[in-house]
Amino acid sequence: MQTPSRSLNLSGASNFRDLGGYANQQGRRLRWRRLFRSDHLAGLTPDDQAVLASIGLSRALDFRGIQESQATAYAMPGVARHSLPIEPTVVQNINAMLQAGHTLTARDAVGLMQHTYRAFVLDNTPRFAELFAHLLEEDAPLVFHCTAGKDRTGFAAALILESLDVPRDVVMHDYLLTNELYRRTHAPQTDTPQEVLDVLWRVQEEFLEAALQEVELRHGSVDRYLEEIGVGRRERERLAALYLDDAPG
């Protein structure tokens, strides 16, 4: 049987991809065409929507902030959209540094991104608890996304894969795929140095590692963090039943 494609190659969303096929520590693989991650969905074409309808997509979890989601709203027939807003902070932090007269460098940008990822753990844990509440309801095909599908979505994907006992190197591999897939749809005029933009519009291991290190610092381990957001042993068994193949291989 032919393996499904990971990227759906949609015209209006460059970073729309399937989490299926990844093997966990016990050799069980995530089921294909159940869990998807993406950049925003406001640019989907009618052909794109037909593709998603054909795979039975019925739920969309939107991590974009309130103004982001209002600026690029979307609706898809047969797909229930749920808002799990995490407000973006990087642009505000950059503007504050520029107004203070700071000359931004790529190193500054890395630090800002690491700060953003730590904040996912410190300030936005309820949103990720909501994510898992939706996942635990049923296995109807679902997509979770933000604007670029790389940061808020990237941390969410990492937590899902960790909850299913996927090895950390595989988690990181999936995270870094954004650098191969994501295409910016526009390049607004900005005074921000190109070396800074090159950091902001890509992902680096250091970003995700900052969030996972914060989890371990504050909660002791990813397993303990998952328990604290309502994903204990019983819930993880249900996630495995919903989203993993029945047998290794």
UniProtKB/TrEMBL annotation:
Principal EC category: hydrolase
Gene3D superfamilies in the record, alphabetically? Protein tyrosine phosphatase superfamily
Q: Which SUPFAM superfamilies match?
A: (Phosphotyrosine protein) phosphatases II
Q: Which GO molecular-function terms appear in the entry?
A: protein tyrosine phosphatase activity
State what protein this is by name: Protein-tyrosine phosphatase
- Keyword annotations from UniProtKB, A to Z: Hydrolase
> What Enzyme Commission number does this protein have?
3.1.3.48
InterPro entries for this protein? Prot-tyrosine_phosphatase-like, Tyr/Ser_Pase_IphP-type, Tyr_Pase_AS
Q: Is-annotated flag, keyword Hydrolase? A: yes
